[in-house]
Design a protein that fits this description.
There is one protein chain. The chain has 16 helices and 24 strands. The chain has 607 residues and is α+β, with helices and mostly antiparallel strands. The strands form 6 sheets. Strands 11-12-13-14-15-16-17-18 form an 8-stranded antiparallel β-barrel. A hairpin with a 5-residue loop joins strand 9 (348-355) and strand 10. It holds the Pfam family Beta-lactamase. InterPro entries: AmpC-like, Beta-lactam-related, Beta-lactam/transpept-like. Residues 51-371 form the Beta-lactamase-related domain. This is CubicO group peptidase (Beta-lactamase class C family).
């Protein structure tokens, strides 16, 4: 859309209404104006409907109960719109004031609070955080002899601090203090936050680091974290529908959406409570997060009324390591630079991306955990809709060639897209479709006998059969990102009708015991045999699903040694698929085993 399109639409709408209400003289000139403005109003209104229709179609495709968004254009909120309902019952609509959990987008807003303290000489970016921590200290060890944990390192995920993220606490559960969380003591459900590599030597995402930062901010200000953030960040930015209060007070709790897991089941109690507020505890709206993004854009440009100065904001948007600034991730080159963050809490996903100096941006929040590319598709659609540069330009729909069904079926299966991130291909009607959370996600069209191209992105997959004709991997080519890499195969889709003999039935009871310990977590997991150290560490808080494990029926075993698959810091040599009898019917479980038969991970799948 042209930059003035929305303004033209508003003018047209106002003029049309005035003429229809007989507030202007219906002269020949006004009649011509009426026709012209009516045309503009219809054109742009239809164009707006195209956007809304696309979003609704994506929600329907993915089974998303509710979605809320805000679009920034020319440094202002151009569009704030809500879709769907606060829960899957479909009775109460989402509004633009409905509160969603921001997940890790909380980190970006909290980072602004920490940088505010730097500007007011309460904190130093490169000082050892233990200097000002009072109620808790980062335990020193062999990794901190020469390099110390600093605020800069925490903000850019380079400190070596552990604990990637937090599952939160069910409503009604005991809530630990921040110190208990940092030490991993009851009732905390995550391991202790510790340094396990030399600070500054590499990048690794750490929600634990931001929880250290939360305690640091409390210690230097003497204020409770939600009040400090409200007084110094949220209120000054006009984020009146945002709070870090955990749990929410009753008057705010009634304004919230309800969280849904990736299978679209409800989060018990509607949401989880996050005492790890800086890392994951912000309740907010897309419009409020858009105001946050606009404040960064204004500060970067040197405009007044921002929480941070221009120089501090430019530090915030400077790459520290791995395209990570101070509290935000960076994309694009010097002319198309964008900042942002994704977020996930139990039952909620969020996305924020905004240009540094073009006054553009998008915030999307949904009341579901969705592992698909849906939010990315919506971002790309909006960018194309408003003719923003710096985003992928979609190629023409690829022309399909015929592929015989036997060849197509051989490409079906699961592949390890990234560490602990599976992509599943299902064949249907001369196409391959990716399946995420039991829903269709992305369509791939055959353009050669073993090459398929996405209809959504400029991405192709090329399957690579070995000397025996078996597919053990595919090559992923991304034209927009300019790279290609090999994606190893995990195994076929599960099929309960295909019976196979278990090559080692004696191990099934051991695997069952290991899985039951992973479900329980805690001391039971700690004392269990048959698990890797990484699995014991990362499942210390237990697994949400399945709640019960009654029996395992062998389906398939895949030797994946040498394919480069690693889970919880252990190499995977074999993946065994079982049909699972539990509280979740018709479910399969993929068990990842090391070369010595230890369980290092598992995945629940539906086919």
């Amino acid at each position: 859309m042209w930059p003035t399109a929305v303004a033209a639409t508003a003018v047209a709408a106002t003029a049309v209404v005035k003429i229809l209400e007989n507030k202007t003289k219906p002269s020949m000139k006004n009649q011509r104006l009426f026709l012209i403005l009516s045309f503009l109003f219809v054109v742009f209104h239809v164009h707006a409907d195209d956007l809304d229709d696309f979003i609704r179609s994506q929600m329907q495709k993915r089974g998303i109960p509710g979605l809320s968004l805000a679009i920034i254009q020319d440094g202002k909120i151009l569009k704030a719109q809500s879709y769907g309902f606060i829960d899957k019952d479909g009775k109460v609509p989402v509004t633009t004031n409905t509160l969603f959990q921001a997940g890790s987008v909380s980190k970006s807003v909290a980072a602004m609070g920490a940088l505010y303290l730097v500007e007011h000489n309460k904190l130093l970016l490169d000082e050892n955080v233990n200097v000002k921590l009072k109620s808790w200290k980062v335990p020193d060890n062999e990794f901190t002899n020469d390099k110390k944990v600093t605020l800069r390192g925490i903000l850019s995920h380079t400190t070596g601090l552990t604990v990637h993220g937090f599952p939160g606490y069910a409503v009604g559960a005991k809530i630990p203090s921040v110190v208990q969380i940092l030490d991993g003591t009851a009732p905390a459900n995550t391991p202790p936050v510790r340094v396990d590599f030399v600070p500054g030597s590499r990048w690794r995402y750490s929600g634990g680091g931001y929880t250290v930062m939360q305690q640091l901010m409390v210690d230097v200000t003497g204020a409770v974290f939600p009040e400090f953030m409200k007084n110094n960040v949220l209120s000054p930015l006009g984020m009146k529908n945002s709070t870090y209060q955990q749990p929410l007070p009753p008057e705010l709790a009634k304004l919230t959406a309800t969280g849904h897991y990736n299978n679209r089941s409800l989060v018990e109690g509607r949401w989880h409570i996050y005492p790890e507020m800086a890392a994951a505890g912000l309740w907010t709206t897309p419009s409020d997060l858009a105001r946050f993004a606009i404040s960064i854009q204004n500060a970067y440009a040197g405009k007044s009324e921002s929480v941070l100065s221009q120089s501090m904001t430019r530090q915030m948007l400077t790459d520290q390591k791995n395209r990570d600034g101070l509290g935000v991730f960076l994309q694009g080159d010097s002319t198309t630079l964008r900042f942002g963050h994704n977020g996930r809490d139990e039952g909620f996903d969020a996305l924020l991306t905004a240009s540094v100096n073009k006054g553009q941006g998008i915030v999307i929040m949904i009341n579901a955990n969705d592992n698909s590319l849906m939010m990315g598709r919506i971002v790309d659609f909006i960018a194309d809709y408003y003719h923003w540069d710096g985003f992928p330009v979609k190629s023409a729909k690829p022309a399909a060639v015929d592929v015989d069904s036997k060849t197509l079926t051989a490409f079906e299966g699961r592949y390890e897209l990234f560490n602990n991130r599976i992509v599943t291909f299902d064949a249907e009607n001369q196409r391959l479709f990716t399946i995420e959370d039991g829903f269709i996600d992305e369509e791939f069209v055959p353009v050669a006998n073993n090459t398929f191209t996405s209809t959504d992105r400029n991405v192709s997959v090329i399957f690579n059969p070995d000397a025996n004709g078996n597919v053990t991997a595919f090559t992923l080519k991304d034209k927009d990102q300019g790279y290609e890499r090999t994606v190893p195969r995990i195994g076929p889709l599960a099929d309960a009708n295909k019976t196979n003999a278990d090559p080692d039935p004696s191990r099934t009871p051991k695997i069952m015991a290991a899985l039951q310990a992973m479900v329980k977590g805690g001391k039971i997991l700690e004392e269990a045999s048959g698990l890797t150290l990484g699995a014991k560490r990362d499942f210390a808080g237990g697994m949400r699903e399945p709640e019960t494990l009654k029996s395992l029926t062998f389906i398939h075993s895949e030797n994946v040694a040498g394919r480069g698959i690693q889970r919880h810091e252990s190499d995977v040599s074999e993946i065994v698929t079982y049909q699972l009898k539990s509280n979740k019917p018709d479910t399969y479980i993929l068990v990842h085993l090391t070369s010595d038969g230890l369980v290092t991970d598992c995945d629940l799948v539906e086919k």
